[in-house]
């Protein structure tokens, strides 16, 4: 199974950046043709100084404080919680390497270049399509629709629900982990239950578009290609007009999509005629890891799992009920329990864990007041503000979330903040100050970096560590501090990187609204509107019993 995280990076013009057997960062030239065909990263800014391990550990622990430390209320009421995991879904779409299973095989040059370049084309959902012999397993018998799975019944009130779990390998052969494995192109989308249910929503969206287009007489491959094109264009429109302005200063988004990119692969200056994008490591390893600070510790999940009922959907439980990071075993109590891939007797999602999407998105945005969850059952969820604080469970990740099952590793490596800082250190990532200078942006002051604005408290750092941090701030920490002073929105450094990469990825996709500037959505309320709530309403036919199949009682 594909590992959830990437521990080595092929950076164009530099080579393969990775850790050696002793945990030291190294750079080497690709040694095989296969390595030359890997996903392509690039470097937007200069190399930065290393951050020593003691500072990385101290900073990570300050960003993920213990439960005994009182934390400021940092919820963002403007952003429903579903957008956190939509962001993770988008990350997997951007970074999926479609040539991974083709290494050593002959592929045409267009497929090769597109497959190892970042694109916003839903290849994490479609793979290489129903005509590919390896990816046919993701598709229904008609070769047009995508498969869906059935949940496990739990007795009265919780029958099996067809179409409410990801499709899974099943069968009676292999290990329990093999039987739980999701039949989707990117197993990372079964790493937590929210992203798994989000992926399922996109499967439903595609299948619903297929049904609509079939009414026009299209069949077979023509129907599939038409459906995919319509789905991808609406997806890109939603990202541009709904998702990005919720996490990036809207003025930056508008500038990039109106006036074009200023720094990353500027047309005519930074890339050639093949139009294949790269992904800057400053985006992958720093600015787009903003979503980690948006994660809640627990969620009002459905009528069964909510705080008034005494058991909300904790972050840990949302790992448990997946096939990639979890084991579907409700007796699991700690991350170490999830390291046992063969634990548990369930092989599909239990019916009582189906998402109530009314709690993850605000359907009043689409004037659907009938799709508001009852307040007495916990109501809906919003994201945590983008800042330098991560919720405590991210201090101790299950090993399955980072490909660590069956291995020995220091406990600090379970800390998500430490992993982020260490990966950036491996790649000699530019500091926040270096990128601010590159962009001509006013840098944060030393006081802003060390004191923040309702984020991580750095009093536990030594004076020497504070001085080092203020002078050369790791880019990920910098962009989160920047957001603290911008009402939780990514600002001149983090926002600019993020918006320009999204623009470039859309421009370089085979299906592209950037290269088709006159295209307008047809599946929303009007010709200029298509939001995530519109996608969900279309995918689930606007029906409450599909968006929330367990009901309210």
TrEMBL record:
SUPFAM superfamilies associated with the record: Heme-dependent peroxidases (SSF48113)
Against Pfam families, the record matches this protein to: An_peroxidase
Report the GO molecular function annotations.
peroxidase activity
- Asked whether the UniProt record includes Secreted among its keywords, one would answer yes
The main location is secreted
PROSITE patterns from the UniProt entry:
PEROXIDASE_3 (PS50292)
Q: Which residues form the signal peptide?
A: none
Q: Which UniProt keywords apply?
A: Glycoprotein, Oxidoreductase, Peroxidase, Secreted
Name the domain of life this protein comes from. Bacteria
Origin organism is Lentzea atacamensis
Under InterPro entries, the record lists:
Haem_peroxidase_animal, Haem_peroxidase_sf, Haem_peroxidase_sf_animal
User: What Gene3D superfamilies does the record tag this protein with?
Assistant: Haem peroxidase domain superfamily, animal type
Location within or outside the cell: Secreted
Q: What is this protein called?
A: Heme peroxidase
């Amino acid at each position: 199974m594909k590992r959830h995280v990437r521990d080595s990076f092929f950076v164009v013009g530099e080579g393969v950046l990775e850790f050696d057997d002793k945990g030291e960062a190294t750079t080497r030239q690709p040694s095989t043709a296969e390595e030359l065909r890997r996903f392509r990263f690039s470097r937007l800014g200069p190399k930065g100084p290393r951050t020593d391990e003691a500072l990385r550990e101290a900073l990570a622990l300050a960003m993920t404080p213990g439960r005994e430390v009182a934390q400021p209320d940092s919820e963002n009421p403007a952003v429903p919680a579903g957008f956190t995991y939509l962001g993770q879904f988008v990350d997997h779409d951007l970074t999926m390497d479609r040539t991974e299973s083709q290494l050593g095989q002959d592929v045409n040059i267009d497929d090769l270049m597109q497959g190892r370049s970042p694109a916003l084309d839903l290849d994490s959902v479609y793979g290489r399509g129903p005509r590919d012999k390896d990816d046919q397993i993701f598709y229904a018998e008609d070769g047009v629709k995508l498969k869906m799975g059935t949940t496990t019944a739990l007795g009265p009130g919780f029958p099996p629900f067809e179409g409410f779990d990801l499709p899974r390998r099943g069968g009676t052969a292999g290990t329990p982990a093999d039987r739980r494995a999701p039949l989707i192109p990117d197993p990372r989308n079964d790493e937590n239950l929210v992203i798994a249910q989000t992926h399922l929503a996109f499967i439903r969206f595609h299948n619903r578009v297929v049904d609509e287009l079939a009414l026009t007489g299209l069949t077979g491959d023509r129907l599939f290609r038409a459906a995919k094109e319509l789905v991808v264009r609406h997806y890109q429109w939603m990202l541009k007009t709904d998702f990005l302005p919720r996490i990036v200063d809207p003025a930056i988004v508008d500038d990039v999509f109106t006036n074009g990119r200023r720094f990353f692969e500027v047309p005519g200056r930074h890339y050639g005629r093949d139009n294949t994008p790269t992904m800057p490591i400053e985006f992958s390893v720093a600015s787009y890891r903003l979503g980690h600070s948006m994660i809640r510790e627990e969620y009002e999940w459905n009528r069964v799992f909510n705080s008034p009922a005494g058991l909300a959907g904790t972050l840990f439980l949302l790992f448990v009920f997946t096939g990639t990071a979890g084991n579907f075993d409700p007796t699991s109590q700690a991350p170490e329990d999830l390291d046992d891939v063969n634990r548990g007797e369930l092989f599909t999602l239990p019916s009582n864990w189906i998402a109530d999407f009314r709690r993850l998105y605000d359907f009043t945005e689409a004037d659907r007041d009938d799709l508001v969850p009852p307040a007495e059952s916990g109501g809906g969820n919003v994201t945590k503000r983008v800042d330098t604080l991560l919720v405590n469970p991210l201090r101790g990740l299950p090993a399955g979330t980072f490909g660590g099952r069956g291995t020995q590793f220091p406990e600090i490596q379970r800390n998500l903040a430490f992993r982020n800082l260490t990966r950036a250190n491996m790649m000699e990532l530019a500091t926040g100050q270096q990128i601010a200078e590159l962009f001509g942006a006013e840098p944060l002051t030393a006081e802003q970096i060390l004191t923040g604005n309702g984020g991580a408290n750095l009093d536990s750092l030594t004076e020497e560590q504070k001085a080092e941090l203020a002078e050369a701030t790791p880019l990920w920490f910098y962009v989160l501090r920047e957001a603290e002073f911008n009402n939780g929105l990514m600002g001149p450094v983090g926002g600019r990187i993020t918006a320009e990469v999204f623009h470039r990825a859309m421009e370089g996709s085979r299906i592209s609204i950037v290269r088709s500037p006159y295209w307008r959505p047809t599946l929303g309320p009007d010709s200029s509107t298509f939001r995530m709530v519109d996608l969900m309403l279309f995918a689930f036919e606007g029906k409450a019993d599909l968006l929330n199949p367990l009901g309210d009682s």
